[in-house]
C-alpha cells in the first residue's frame, strides 16, 4: 500500500533559458537606478497629481482616458506608503523624502521589462525561428525610447505591455484551436485575451485600436471556421458564444469594474467635481453634499430653490438676479427694456435663490401638506431677495439680438405688461405626471406667452460688459432653433419656504437647511455621467514646446527633453535608437512591396512559396503591419496636442516586423549558401550598429553620466533635435 514511498517524487519542468535571460536583461535595463533622478520628470508632474488625489480619496476627472492606468500608478504609491502630500507644480522639482520614488516608478518599469520576453514569445507563436524571436526581443531591449518611457511614472509602457499580452494570448489561443478546442488552456488564453484588451483600453483609449484589430482578426478566423464542413452547427454556435463571452462581455464587465473601483476609492469632494451634475456632486462626501444633504426631494409651490445650468461649460453657473437694471441703450445703440438684470452667475450667492410660486395664489410659502410641482405645470419664479418675477418679452437680448431678453419685471407704468408665466418641462421624466425633484430632475422652462426657452447663452464664450459685472448672459431662445443642454436646469439647493414676510424670508434664504432625505445615485448613473464627461470634456489644446506632428515620428525628427540636472549637463531625452527606427520603416516598406509583388505573381498563377508559408506571411502582416497602422494612422485625424511617445505602440509592432522580414529574406530570397552567409554577416554588422547607437545615447536615456558640452553637441545627429546645452 505504501509502495509509492520507495521511489522519490520527481518533478520535471521545461525552462526556456532564452526567456529567463531576456526577462533578467529586461529587468536590469528598466530597473537599474530607477530612483534617479529624484526629481519630477516631464509628465510625472501630470500623473503625480492624480496619484496624490487617490491617496487622499478625492474625486477627479481626467479627460485623457479611463482610470485603470492611474489606479496602477496609485497602487505603486500605496505600496510605497505615499501619503499624497507633494506639490506637483513643476518639472524638475526635487521630491521630498515622503515620496517613494522607486515604488511609484516600479510598475511602469516592470511592464516595460516584461515587453522584452513578450516580444520573443509572440514571434515563436507566429511560427518563426527562435533566432528571429530572440532578435525581436533584443531590439525591444535596446530601444532607447522604450527604456526611457518605462523608467518613469508614465503610462505608455503599461499600455504596450497589455497590448503585447493581448496579441500573445490570442496567438496562443488560435494555435490551440487546431487540436484542443474548449480545453482548459484554450479557455485560459481566450479569456486572457479579453482581459488584456480591457486593461489596454482601461489604461488609455489608444488600446482600443489594438482591441479592434484583434476583434477583426478573430472575426476573420471565425468566418473561415464557418466554411469548415467538419464542424457541426452546434459546435460553431459554441465557438461563437465563447468568443463573444471572452472578447466582448468580459472586457465590458472589466471596463465597468475599473470605474466601480475608481468611484469607490474617490468618495470625497474636490475641485474637479464642479463640472459634474448636482446629483453627482451631492453623492460625494463634503462639498455640495454638506449643503444639500437632507434637502426636500420634491419641489412644491412655495419652495425656495437655486437653479444650476446643466451644461456646466466652460464653468458651472446659477440663475441669478440683482437690483441693477439693463442700460437704457447698449454700446451699439440698441435699446433695452431697462428691466432688472437676470444673469448666470458662476459662484454661490444669496441672489441665486428663487421662489416657486403658484400663479393662482399670492402666498410664497409651502402649504401643509406641500403641493408638488409636476411636469407641465405653470409656475412663476420670484427672485428671493428683490421679490421681482422672472420675465421675458419681445425685446432683443443684450449680446444675442436674435434671442429674447430675460429680466425680472419692474412696473414702469408703461405699455409693457408683465409676461412671467413659465411651463415646467421635465426632460428626463419617466412619465408625464412626474414630480419635479431636487437635483435629479433636468428641467426646461418654456415661456407661456412666447414659447421661448430659458437658456444660458454665455456658454458660447460671451459675458456681459462691466454694467453686467462680466456675468454670463441668460436669454429666451426659440425652440425652433434646436435643443441644447444650456436650456436645461436642475434644482441644486432647496428648502421649503416658511416665512411670508420679506424680512424674515431674507434671513431664511441665508440659512442652511437640514431635512432627512437621501439622493444617492446608482453606480450606472454615475458611470454614465463620468464616462460622458471624459469623452466630451476637452481642455484647451495649447502648443507645447515639444509637441509634434504624426509625420515627424516616422523619421524621428523630434525629441522630448524630459529632465535637466539643475547644475550639470546631465539630462534625459525621449529619443529612439536611430538604426532601429530606420530599420523598422525599411522592414515595413519591404513587407508591403514584397506582398504586392507576390500578389501580382499569384494572380498570374506563379507561386513563390508554399501555401502554408504564404498564409504565415499574410497573417504576420495582419498583426504587425496592421498593428502599426491602427496605432499610427488615427493620429492624422485627431485634433489634439501630439507628442513623440504617442508613436511608441505603433513602433513596437514595427520592431516585431524587422526579424520577420529578415528571416523571410534569408529563407526565400537567399538561395545559395554564399548568399546566406553574406546575409548573416550583414545582420551581425547591422545588429552591432543597433547596440552601438544604444550605448551612444545611453547617457541621455538614463540621465547619467553627465556629458560635456562637446559630447552633447556630438549627440545632436539631427538639426531638429533639441539637445539642451547650458550657456557658458
UniProtKB/TrEMBL annotation:
It is an enzyme of class 2 (transferase). Its EC number is 2.4.1.109. It comes from the Eukaryota. The chain crosses the membrane at residues 9-32, 68-88, 100-120, 154-174, 186-219, 240-261, 578-600, 612-630, 642-662, 674-694. Residues 296-359, 370-427 form the MIR domain. Keywords: Endoplasmic reticulum, Glycosyltransferase, Membrane, Repeat, Transferase, Transmembrane, Transmembrane helix. Pathway: Protein modification; protein glycosylation. PROSITE patterns: MIR (PS50919). It is a multi-pass membrane protein. It holds the Pfam family PMT_4TMC. It is found in: Endoplasmic reticulum membrane. It catalyses: a di-trans,poly-cis-dolichyl beta-D-mannosyl phosphate + L-threonyl-[protein] = 3-O-(alpha-D-mannosyl)-L-threonyl-[protein] + a di-trans,poly-cis-dolichyl phosphate + H(+); a di-trans,poly-cis-dolichyl beta-D-mannosyl phosphate + L-seryl-[protein] = 3-O-(alpha-D-mannosyl)-L-seryl-[protein] + a di-trans,poly-cis-dolichyl phosphate + H(+). One of its GO terms (molecular function) is dolichyl-phosphate-mannose-protein mannosyltransferase activity. GO terms for cellular component: endoplasmic reticulum membrane. The keyword Transmembrane applies. Belongs to the glycosyltransferase 39 family. This is Protein O-mannosyl-transferase 1. The lineage of its organism: Eukaryota, Metazoa, Chordata, Craniata, Vertebrata.
Amino acid at each position: 500500500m505504501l509502495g509509492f514511498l520507495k521511489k522519490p517524487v520527481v518533478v520535471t519542468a521545461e525552462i526556456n533559458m532564452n526567456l529567463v535571460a531576456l526577462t533578467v536583461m529586461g529587468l536590469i535595463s528598466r530597473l537599474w537606478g530607477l530612483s534617479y533622478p529624484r526629481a519630477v520628470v516631464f509628465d510625472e508632474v501630470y500623473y503625480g497629481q492624480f496619484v496624490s488625489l487617490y491617496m487622499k480619496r478625492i474625486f477627479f476627472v481626467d479627460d485623457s482616458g479611463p482610470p485603470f492606468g492611474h489606479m496602477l500608478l496609485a497602487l505603486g504609491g500605496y505600496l510605497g506608503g505615499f501619503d499624497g502630500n507633494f506639490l506637483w507644480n513643476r518639472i524638475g522639482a526635487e521630491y521630498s523624502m515622503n515620496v517613494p520614488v522607486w515604488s511609484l516608478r516600479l510598475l511602469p518599469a516592470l511592464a516595460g521589462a516584461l515587453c522584452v520576453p513578450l516580444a520573443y514569445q509572440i514571434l515563436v507563436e507566429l511560427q518563426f525561428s527562435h533566432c528571429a524571436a530572440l532578435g525581436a526581443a533584443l531590439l525591444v531591449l535596446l530601444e532607447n525610447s522604450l527604456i526611457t518611457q518605462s523608467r518613469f511614472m508614465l503610462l505608455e509602457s503599461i499600455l504596450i505591455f497589455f497590448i503585447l499580452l493581448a496579441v500573445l494570448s490570442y496567438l496562443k489561443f488560435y494555435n490551440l484551436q487546431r487540436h484542443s478546442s474548449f480545453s482548459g488552456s484554450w479557455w485560459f488564453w481566450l479569456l486572457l485575451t479579453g482581459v488584456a484588451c480591457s486593461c489596454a483600453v482601461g489604461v488609455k483609449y489608444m488600446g482600443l485600436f489594438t482591441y479592434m484589430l484583434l476583434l477583426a482578426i478573430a472575426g476573420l478566423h471565425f468566418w473561415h471556421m464557418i466554411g469548415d464542413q467538419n464542424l457541426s452547427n452546434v459546435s460553431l454556435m459554441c465557438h461563437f458564444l465563447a468568443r463573444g463571452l471572452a472578447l466582448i462581455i468580459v472586457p465590458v464587465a472589466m471596463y465597468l469594474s475599473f470605474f466601480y473601483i475608481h468611484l469607490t476609492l474617490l468618495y470625497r469632494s474636490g475641485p474637479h467635481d464642479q463640472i459634474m451634475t448636482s446629483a453627482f456632486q451631492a453623492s460625494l462626501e463634503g462639498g455640495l453634499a454638506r449643503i444639500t444633504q437632507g434637502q426636500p426631494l420634491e419641489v412644491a409651490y412655495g419652495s425656495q430653490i437655486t437653479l444650476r445650468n446643466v451644461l456646466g461649460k466652460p464653468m458651472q453657473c446659477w440663475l441669478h438676479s440683482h437690483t441693477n437694471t439693463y442700460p437704457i441703450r447698449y454700446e451699439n445703440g440698441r435699446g433695452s427694456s431697462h428691466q432688472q438684470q437676470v444673469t448666470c452667475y458662476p459662484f454661490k450667492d444669496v441672489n441665486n435663490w428663487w421662489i416657486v410660486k403658484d400663479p393662482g395664489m399670492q402666498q410664497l410659502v409651502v402649504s401643509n401638506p406641500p403641493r408638488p410641482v409636476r411636469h407641465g405645470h405653470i409656475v412663476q419664479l420670484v427672485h428671493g431677495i428683490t421679490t421681482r418675477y422672472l420675465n421675458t418679452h419681445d425685446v432683443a437680448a443684450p449680446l444675442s439680438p436674435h434671442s429674447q431678453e430675460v429680466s425680472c419685471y419692474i412696473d414702469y407704468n408703461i405699455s409693457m405688461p408683465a409676461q412671467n408665466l413659465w411651463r415646467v418641462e421635465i426632460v428626463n421624466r419617466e412619465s408625464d405626471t412626474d414630480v419635479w425633484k431636487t437635483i435629479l430632475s433636468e428641467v426646461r422652462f418654456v415661456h407661456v406667452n412666447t414659447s421661448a426657452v430659458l437658456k444660458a447663452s454665455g456658454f458660447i464664450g460671451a459675458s456681459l460688459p462691466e454694467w453686467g459685472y462680466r456675468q454670463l448672459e441668460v436669454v429666451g431662445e426659440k425652440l425652433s432653433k434646436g435643443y441644447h443642454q444650456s436650456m436645461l436646469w436642475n434644482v441644486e439647493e432647496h428648502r421649503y419656504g416658511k416665512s411670508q414676510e420679506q424680512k424674515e424670508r431674507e434671513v431664511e434664504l441665508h440659512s442652511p437647511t437640514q431635512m432627512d432625505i437621501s439622493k444617492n445615485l446608482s453606480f450606472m448613473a454615475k458611470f454614465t455621467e463620468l464616462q460622458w464627461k471624459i469623452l466630451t470634456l476637452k481642455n484647451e489644446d495649447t502648443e507645447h514646446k515639444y509637441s509634434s506632428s504624426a509625420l515627424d515620428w516616422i523619421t524621428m525628427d523630434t525629441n522630448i527633453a524630459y529632465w535637466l540636472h539643475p547644475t550639470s549637463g546631465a539630462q534625459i531625452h525621449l529619443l529612439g535608437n536611430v538604426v532601429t527606427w530606420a530599420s523598422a520603416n525599411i522592414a515595413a516598406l519591404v513587407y508591403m512591396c514584397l506582398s504586392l509583388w507576390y500578389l501580382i505573381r499569384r494572380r498570374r498563377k506563379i507561386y513563390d512559396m508554399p501555401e502554408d508559408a504564404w498564409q504565415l506571411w499574410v497573417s504576420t502582416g495582419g498583426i504587425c503591419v496592421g498593428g502599426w497602422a491602427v496605432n499610427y494612422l488615427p493620429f492624422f485625424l485627431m485634433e489634439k496636442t501630439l507628442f513623440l511617445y504617442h508613436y511608441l505602440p505603433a513602433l513596437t509592432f514595427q520592431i516585431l516586423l524587422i526579424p520577420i522580414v529578415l528571416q523571410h529574406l534569408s529563407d526565400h530570397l537567399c538561395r545559395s549558401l554564399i548568399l546566406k552567409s553574406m546575409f548573416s554577416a550583414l545582420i551581425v554588422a547591422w545588429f552591432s550598429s543597433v547596440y552601438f547607437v544604444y550605448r551612444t545615447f545611453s547617457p541621455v536615456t538614463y540621465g547619467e553620466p553627465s556629458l560635456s558640452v562637446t559630447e552633447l553637441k556630438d549627440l545632436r545627429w539631427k538639426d531638429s533635435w533639441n539637445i539642451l546645452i547650458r550657456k557658458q
